[in-house]
Amino acid sequence: MYLHFYNLDEKPFNATPDPKFLFLTPAHREALAQLVYGVQESKGFMVLTGEVGTGKTTLLHTLLRKLDGTTPVAFVTNSLLPFDGVLEYMLEDFGVRDAGSTTAQRLVSLNRFLIERRREGQNAVLILDEAQNLAPEALEQVRLLSNFETPTEKLLQILLVGQPELKLKLLLPELRQLRQRVGLQASIRPLTPEETRDYIQSRLRKAGAPDLKLFSDRATDRIAEYSNGIPRLVNIVCDHCLLIGYADQRHRIDQDIVEKAVEYLEEGNRPARAHGFTWQPATSTLRWVLGGLGAAVVGGLSFLVLGSGVPHSAWASIFEHLLDIARGARDLVTR
User: Fold this and answer.
1) Same fold? 26-188, 192-270
2) Topology of 26-188 in CATH?
């Protein structure tokens, strides 16, 4: 795609939580330091909060890298599980086999595992991602896991990670015992406009870009404005900008390209409306017709550009993205 055109070693704006691309603002650096300290000092319960897309998962993967390689970690990402599901997931992640079929048997197996790890000088860690979705009953049962302890220290370090709503949930009267046991709270915030510019340049540098000014100042200002400093949105916009710039054979991303990317994203997310009325197909047959029509239109457009001066490889990349959109539209209307 655009890697060779911009002399990049890898994609700089992938959405995956790669610790290599972690950009440490003062808030991120402080949060990471607190989490490392909390685990090492056996603080028991810890809470990390931040808005959607601010880099919590990337921070967690960086935390895991900083821990001793022998530290057993259970990373539960499905926050819709009931407590029994969380417990089963934990034991599987910890590598505990034949834990039993009842909750009581599994708790006994977990306690035995934690005691063995402590004898080896290890700190077991449970990370519950998207914890704001856990039911109060499940959170209360998670609290009971902190009862696994010796007279001097906790056997299990529990990290609750979630959106700001998690803080509100912890204020519920039925969770007051859990709230009192939180030994450490950390939070991360969106990027400032200056941090957004540094963030973009940092990712370009780590991806091998020879020109860290690939995005003009006006372009980065517009990206910061549109994204409100949310790193995930910055990544999405920047990736689209590079694709559009490649298609237009532009070696520098300026504000006009950002505007095209923003317009594309906005139009792609906007439901079809007519005079305030959202129209939905009534039959499954019609839904499939519409889905196929989207792909057919994209295919037809290809014949219009074969004779243009734009490299075919550029158009191929664009059509690959457009086909993904068509497939997404088909999936949407077939629900």
Assistant:
1) no
2) Rossmann fold (3.40.50)
pLDDT reported for residue 296: 43
Above 80 in pLDDT, residue 323?
no
pLDDT for the residue numbered 277 = 31
Helix (H) or strand (E) holding 164: none
> What distance in Å separates the CA atoms of residue 266 and residue 260, rounded to the nearest whole number?
10
Nearest residue to 34 (alpha-carbon basis) of 58, 56, 63:
63
Q: How far apart are CA 220 and CA 242, in angstroms?
A: 13
* Domain range summary for the chain, segments of one domain joined by +: 26-188, 192-270, 277-335
d(CA 83, CA 92): 14
User: Within 13 Å, how many C-alpha atoms sit on residue 28's CB side?
Assistant: 23
pTM reported for the whole predicted model:
0.75
Whole-number Å distance between alpha carbons of 237 and 314 = 18
Helices (DSSP H) in 96-173: which residue ranges? 103-119, 136-144, 165-169
Give residue-wise pLDDT tens across range 218-276.
999 999 999 999 999 999 999 999 999 999 999 999 999 999 999 999 886 433 333 33
Instruction: For domain 192-270, say whether CATH 1.10.8.60 is its number.
Output: yes
Q: Which two tokens stand for residue 78?
A: 């499905």
pLDDT above 90 covers what percent of the chain?
65
Closest by CA position to 232, among listed 208, 261, 207, 199: 199
